[in-house]
Design a protein that fits this description.
The protein is of the alpha+beta class. The protein has helices spanning 2-7, 23-33, 56-59, 71-74, 79-92, 141-160, 166-173; strands at residues 38-43, 48-51, 96-105, 112-124, 130-139.
């Protein structure tokens, strides 16, 4: 992603030329790009999207188009959920926290149920005003779905434990 960020023509975006980026944005991007954790930064009034390599699977087919976009364009299907949280960060300088939040996303050409644990945190500009949102996230979809499946199997095993025949077991299971 560092290579893509360097190669992008930022002049047509809200953040303009990288030579004019504030040190606070440069620092936030440096932290994000050097992490192996899924991270992104939304910067400025348009919340210009930056993200690291680990975050690419979260975007799915929206990568690399999402780089430099506004998040409401990237995530229209979940903006009603995540947008108000970004507003809390930007307007109140308070971090948010979500644990295993269900988000119905369309990141790979189909609707899918996903779960994420994440925090939005304020990023101050060089004058100390909140100018961006920093997010570290973990996709929990496989774990949540795995736990759900194990629970269903546990329930099925418990319900069929006293069955005396294959027919009884199938009837109880159905």
């Amino acid at each position: 992603m560092a290579r893509l960020i360097r190669a992008k023509d930022w002049s047509q975006t809200a953040v303009r030329s990288p030579e004019d980026w504030p040190q606070s944005l440069r620092s936030a991007l440096g932290i994000m790009l050097h992490s192996r954790y899924q991270m992104f930064v939304w910067w400025g009034e348009e919340l210009t999207y930056f993200y690291n390599d680990a975050y690419i699977p979260v975007l799915g087919k929206r990568h690399p188009w999402a780089l430099g976009q506004s998040p409401w364009k990237v995530w229209p299907e979940i903006w009603d959920t995540i947008g108000p949280q970004a507003e809390i960060v930007l307007n109140e300088a308070r971090a948010t926290w979500n644990e295993q939040l269900e988000l119905i996303m369309e990141r790979n050409g189909y609707t899918e149920e996903t779960f994420f644990t994440f925090s939005y945190s304020p990023i101050p500009d060089d004058q100390g005003r909140v100018a961006g949102v920093y997010c570290a996230c973990t996709e929990e979809t496989h774990r949540v779905l795995g736990e759900r499946r194990l629970g269903a199997l546990r329930h099925l095993a418990s319900a069929t434990a006293d069955s005396k025949s294959v027919e009884d077991t199938c009837e109880v299971a159905a």
